[in-house]
Known about the structure:
This protein is mostly helical. 49% of the residues lie in helices and 2% in strands. Strands 1-2 form a two-stranded antiparallel sheet. The radius of gyration is 19 Å and the shape is globular.
Amino acid sequence: MDSRIQFYLVTFMVTLATVLSPTVAKLTPNYYDRICPKALPIIKLAVKQAIYREPRIGASLLRLHFHDCFVNGCDGSVLLDDTPTFRAAVTKACTRDVVSCADILAIAARDSVAILGGNQYWYQVLLGRRDARTASWDAANANLPPPFFNFSQLITNFNSHGLNLKDLVVLSGGHTIGLARCTTFRDRIFNDTNIDATFAANLQKTCPRIGGDNSLAPFDSTPKKVDTAYYKALLYKKGLLHSDQELFKGDGSQSDRLVLKYSKDSYAFAKDFGVSMIKMGNLKPLTGKKGEIRCNCRKVNNS
């Protein structure tokens, strides 16, 4: 992640974060309706303004929520940092401090998708998470699927989180927005056989065998818009990452059928994407008296 995107993300999250604990132990879509009705509109406005300043922020917020949930559950631990370098004023919109960093991530990911894709991509987020007091680099390395995974490895990884094949295919559709670094797709464009030759040759111009590690390429032809172009690219062997193209082999498998379905039906993709995002957002959340509500999303309280 480049420094400009990192700056926007940190500023955005720290500005929105608050500090008091929720007491309800069950996630609910109307969690903040009574205790802080201004929370969701304020987050939506902040996301919209952030995307206006830097379009890539939407993809980054979506990835952050995914990474957060896959590493020890949706608890905001992905944001912890022992040496924070940015400061911002904490939002005082609520009469008392109640909004967790983990919930902000879940809401911001949803709003990013809806802003970049339209109202059909809006879904109702379940809320009431608390934030972790610890983070684990080892857990991140063990739980996040790398770009070189094959299909069976992807299935195993998602199953370990209680997610199935359909969740894998539809959540991979999050690559409908954003860019990837050369290091994540270099091996594919030089060594994979299940790739369009012209597509690979064009990418090799900016991502050579040696050097250009930070060169960027879009996941699909419309990297600033949530749509079905990602799935259409897979049909023509133009998936950017090895793990992307593993979803479509042209062998008539269930994964193939889902890719074909989503490539043709944006409403089906939007509906199923929301269902899988909610399912992912329910991975081992901290509730009740577990964890805390961080005032600075990059470090635990009293640290």
